[in-house]
Design a protein that fits this description.
Elements lengths: L2 H10 L13 H18 L4 E3 L14 E8 L2 H20 L3 E5 L5 H8 L5 E10 L7 H10 L10 E4 L5 H11 L11 E5 L2 E5 L7 H18 L5 E6 L9 E4 L4 H6 L1
Parallel strand pairs: 5-6
Antiparallel strand pairs: 1-2, 2-4, 3-4, 6-7, 7-9, 8-9
Bound molecules: flavin mononucleotide.
InterPro entries: Nitroreductase-like (IPR000415), TM1586_NiRdase (IPR029478)
Family: Belongs to the nitroreductase family.
GO molecular function: oxidoreductase activity
Length: 260
């Protein structure tokens, strides 16, 4: 998918919890399984596709599948789960499917029983995928109201900013604002100081790092659209200022550089 297509998916994505009474076609399931295999290979995760996810849910409706988002017990793996899981979400959304990240409202014990994960690994969330209902259900409207009473703008997520944000970073953050996060808490704190952009979450050894991974991907997509082809470091280069602050390392497009 192109970067532009990812942006379209970000614009169109909303968590969907009501699906049609029709299972995904075999062709779509096969494509999702291929994406899962590719992510596991690239990022060393333990994502697993489950054909019929309905037995693990009580408040979601219709027929849907899910990806179990699992891996080793580390901060980096939590972030990668968010980053790579969201890349699959956006590809599904672009092709008209409905998705929802879920870490609370499903039967986690039943999932552990079903998948027999090695004891050193953990399930961080699941992602439901199905054909979304044309209209939002009452449950969806109620959940939306509950989670969107107060929404942090991206400006609210910036902790320090000692000069005007470059356009690429401001746009990246505007796409972070559109991303999913558990109970819509948008927990990532960003700083732009001395020309360096960084981000962190207060409790990196929690599922807030999954939210951070999702935010990282949205930021990278936004920055890239404005000519900054950067990546997030995994090393905390700011110790001992705070625990786990990670830096965004920009790399300008050749074309942009020659225009400077
Ligand atoms: C890690 C994570 C966990 C989530 N857990 C749940 C959940 O347990 N149940 C649920 O209905 N939605 C869950 N959500 C969806 C959020 O509520 C949703 O992303 C947020 O309210 C923003 O709404 P939007 O996704 O429609 O933009 C989760 C999202 C993330 C990223």
């Amino acid at each position: 998918m192109t970067n532009e297509q990812y942006i379209k998916a970000i614009e169109n994505r909303h968590s969907r919890r009501a699906y049609k009474q029709k299972h995904l076609s075999q062709e779509i399931k096969d494509v999702i399984k291929q994406m899962v295999d590719a992510v596991n290979e690239e990022a060393g995760l333990d994502l697993l596709f489950i054909d019929d996810a309905t037995p693990f849910f009580s408040i979601f409706s219709g027929k849907f599948s899910m990806i179990v988002v699992a891996g080793d017990d580390s901060q980096k793996v939590r972030e990668n789960c968010g980053y790579f899981g969201e890349s699959i979400v956006l590809q599904c959304v672009y092709h008209g499917l409905g998705t929802c990240w879920v870490s609370g409202t499903y039967n986690e014990n039943k999932v552990y029983e079903a998948i027999k994960l090695p004891s050193e690994k953990r399930v961080y969330a699941v992602i439901t995928i199905g054909y979304p209902k044309d209209r939002y259900s009452l449950v969806e409207k109620t959940m939306y109201k509950a989670t969107h009473k107060k929404c942090k703008s991206y400006q609210d997520m910036i902790e320090v900013c000692d000069e005007k944000l470059p356009e690429a970073y401001a746009y990246g953050l505007s796409l972070v604002e559109k991303g999913p996060s558990a109970v819509n808490r948008r927990p990532v704190k960003f700083r732009y100081e001395n020309g360096e952009f960084s981000g962190y979450v207060d409790e990196p050894y929690s599922d807030k790092s999954v939210d951070f991974g999702i935010a990282k991907l949205h930021f990278v997509i936004g920055a890239m659209a404005k000519g900054v082809n950067g990546k997030w470091s995994f090393e905390n280069v700011f110790e001992p200022v705070d625990g786990q602050r990670l830096k965004f390392e920009p790399k300008m497009d050749e074309e942009e550089k020659s225009n400077e």
